[in-house]
Known about the structure:
Elements lengths: L1 E6 L3 H14 L11 H10 L4 E5 L8 H14 L4 E4 L9 H10 L4 E5 H4 L9 H9 L3 E5 L11 H11 L4 E4 L7 H8 L5 E4 L16 H6 L4 E2 L13 H7 L5 H15 L5
Amino acid sequence: xxxxxxxxxxxxxxxxxxxxxxxxxxxxxxxxxxxxxxxxxxxxxxxxxxxxxxxxxxxxxxxxxxxxxxxxxxxxxxxxxxxxxxxxxxxxxxxxxxxxxxxxxxxxxxxxxxxxxxxxxxxxxxxxxxxxxxxxxxxxxxxxxxxxxxxxxxxxxxxxxxxxxxxxxxxxxxxxxxxxxxxxxxxxxxxxxxxxxxxxxxxxxxxxxxxxxxxxxxxxxxxxxxxxxxxxxxxxxxxxxxxxxxxxxxxxxxxxxxxxxxxxxxxxx
Length: 269
C-alpha cells in the first residue's frame, strides 16, 4: 500500500493540534503516535510501503520553517515518506518558500482551506501552481465547507483551478465530501483531477460516506488511498476494510491502494 494522506508536524505544532482535538472533539486520538519514526513504524507494520506526509502553515511566518522540518524529516525517514510543502500567501516571499521546499525534496503542496483560511482558487496561488506543474508535482487540497459565507462551492473552486492549470495534478481529499458526485463529473472532463479516500470509507469514521460500488469502480484509476493517520479515532486498517467491502476487482482495489499513487508520485520515489 501507499498512503497518500498522512500527517507529520513539528513537535510544538503537533502538540497544539492534539490539544485542539482533546478540547474540541470526542475523537480520543491521544494513543496515536506523533513522532515521525513511530508513525513510520506503525505504517510499515500495517503494510504501507511508502507514504505522503505534510503539515500546514495556518498563519504567515511559519511556512519556511515547517518546510525545512518536513524535508529534514523525510531524509531521516530514509525515503519511506515523501513530504508535501506548505505555503501561506500572506508571507512576502511565499513563492520563494515553495521553490526552496521543492528544491529540498518536497513533491508539491498541501492546502487546507479551512485551517489556512485560503481558498484553493485564490489568484495568489497561481504562480505556486505553475511551478508545481512544471516540476511534475502534486497539489493535495482539503476543499469543502468552510466557516464563512461563500456562494461558490468547493467543486466550483477546484474547477477554476484545473481550468487555469490543466497540467497540474490535483488530488482532492476526503473524496471531495460533500460534493463527491460533482467531482466525479469533473473527473470526466479533467484528466489530472483525482480524489483520495481519507476517512470516507472506514466504517468507524465520523465522516464515512456511502458509495455505490460501481461509482468507485468507474473511477478506480483516479482514486488514491489515504487515511489521515495518525489523526484518526479508530484502527489504521479500517480504511482498507471499508474499501474491501465494496467487492471491487483485484486490479481496481490494487490501483486505489497502490498503483495510482505510485504513478502520480513516480518522480519523487
